[in-house]
Amino acid sequence: MNIEAIREMVDRYLQGTATDQEKKVIEKWLQARPEDDRPLKEQDKQAIRTALWQSFIHHTNWQPSATTREAVRSYSLFNYRSWIGYAAAVIVVASCTIWLNTTLLRKQPTPVQTIVALKGAHKTVQLPDSSIAHLFPGATLAIPDDFNTKERAVILSGKIFFEVKSDPSRPFYVQSGKLRTRVLGTSFEVTARDSLHAAVIVRTGKVGVQYDGRQLADLVPGKRLRYDVQQQHFVVDEVNAAMLCEWWNNGMVFNQSPFEEVVQSISDWYNVPVTITGTKWKQERVTIRIKNRSFSEALSLLSATLGFQYKKENNGVIIY
C-alpha cells in the first residue's frame, strides 16, 4: 500500500464512506501508534509530508502563502501532531505505511474458539480432527480456526487430558506459555495453571516437550515431566499414568505432587476458594487419592494426611 492509497483511505474514513475493514485498520493503528518506535527514511517522511499537506488543503480550502508552504516543508513529521481534527488523523494514518504493509494488512490474528470448563464441573469435547479433550474444572482450551489444516495446534490453560487421533501428516501441538508439546497420535495430560510450573504425563504413545524452543525430553508411557520456570529446571519420573490421568473416572489421584497443586485441584474441583497461609505447608508433597467424597470429606482427609489446621471463612477455607 503506497502513500496515495493511504491518503484515499483516510479521506473515506473522514467522510464516513470507509468500509468496516478500513475503519478497523485506521482505528487499530491509532491505538498501536507504531511510528513512535519505527524510524522512517527521509524519502518516506517527505512523501508523507506532501500527501499530508495536499490532503489538508483539499479538506480546508485554505490557500497558504509561498512563505508558509516553504515553512511547512521544513517541519519534521512529528511537528504535525499538534494539528487538530483532520490534520492529526492524516498524520497518524499516513505515517503507518510501512506498518500497514508489513503487519496489519498482511497478517491478521487467527480467530479462535475458546472452550471453558467452569470450576466445579469438568468437560469433555471432541476437536475438529475427532481427537478428544478432557478439561479439568477451571481449564481453558483455545482452538484456532485454521486447526487441522497444515497442523493441529491448541492453546491450554489449566489441566487437560488429550486423546489424539493419529495423523502423521498433521502434528498435534499443545502450547501453554513457552511450554510446547508435540505428538502425532497418543494420549497425554498437560497441566499449566500458572506461568511458573508445568507438567506433562504420557499414558500412551510418545510426546516431545520443549520450553522456549529448547528441547527438554521425549516422554514415553508412564513418564511425567515437571518444569520449574524460576529454577529453569525439570525432572522426569515414573508414574501410574492410567490412574493419574483419568480423574473423571478414578477421582483425583496425586503422586508426590506439590501441596499447592493438590489444594488448587481440590479448590477447582469443588469450586470452593482455598488459601494457604502457612509457608511450611507450601513445601510439602502429597500422595493421596480423593474419589466420591464431598468437599468437607476431601479436606478432612488431606488434613489428616499432613496434619494442618483449617477454618472456614466467608465462602472459602483458610489452611494454616
Q: Main traits of this protein?
A:
single chain, 320 residues, alpha+beta, Jelly Rolls, Phage tail protein beta-alpha-beta fold, 3 domains, 13-stranded mixed beta sheet, three-stranded mixed beta sheet, 11 helices, 34% helix, globular
Could you provide a short overview of the structure?
The chain is an alpha+beta fold.
Explain the layout of strands and helices.
Layout: H1 3-15, H2 20-32, H3 42-60, H4 66-74, H5 86-94, H6 97-104, E1 112-116, E2 123-126, E3 132-135, E4 140-144, E5 152-163, E6 172-176, E7 179-183, E8 187-192, E9 197-204, E10 207-211, E11 214-219, E12 223-228, E13 233-238, H7 241-245, H8 247-250, E14 252-258, H9 259-270, E15 274-276, H10 279-282, E16 285-290, H11 295-306, E17 310-313, E18 316-319
Parallel strand pairs: 5-6, 15-18
Antiparallel strand pairs: 1-4, 2-3, 3-5, 4-5, 5-8, 6-7, 7-10, 8-9, 9-12, 10-11, 12-13, 14-16, 17-18
Helix pairs in contact: 1-3, 1-5, 3-5
The domain count comes to 3
Indicate the percent of residues in helices.
25-40%
Q: What is the CA-atom radius of gyration, in angstroms?
A: 28 Å
The counted number of beta strands is: 18
Provide the structure class: alpha+beta
Strand content: 25-35%
Mean pLDDT: 80
Span of the ends, CA to CA: 63 Å
Strand count, sense and barrel status of the largest sheet are:
13 strands, mixed
Low-confidence stretches: 33-37, 71-89
The number of helical runs is 11
CATH class of the largest domain: Mainly Beta
SSE topology string: HHHHHHEEEEEEEEEEEEEHHEHEHEHEE
Annotated CATH topology of the largest domain: Jelly Rolls
Tell me what the CATH architecture of the largest domain is.
Sandwich
Please tell me what the overall shape is. globular
